Amino acid sequence: MSTASYSTNEDRNFDTSDGTSGDGRSSWSEGSTTQQAKARAGKLLEDAKDSAQSLANEKKDVAADELHHVAGALRNAAQSRSGDDPLLGLTGSAADGLDRLSNALRNKDVSVMMRDMESFARAQPVAFFGLALATGFLAVRFMKASQS
To answer: Which DSSP symbol is given to 134?
Structure first.
């Protein structure tokens, strides 16, 4: 049977009041290095998040401007058509809708839009998937048309 007994933390080399573990090794340097690494990683993550948010806001503004220009082009096309054309009303409605979308994009922050999109996706997953599919299809058609 062992006769050694440990009555206090100092006897177990857990006293860190002088920054050592009792056997001469520094316990603070390991802990502080870990803390510094965590702090640095947190700062890098926060900086990356801020940069991504800034870039997303810039691209959002560009998209809003483009939608506004498309709405203007639709209005011009509608005005150049004859008054009996059944597509005239649809073209005007599409232009108004694009202008509303443009203003909504311009006036909302990206983080708010992402939260709105997430809650819509949770509430209406089938509609969200359908819209995502239609948006992808339209984007591909637009890119193909732009290349020719």
So the answer is: H
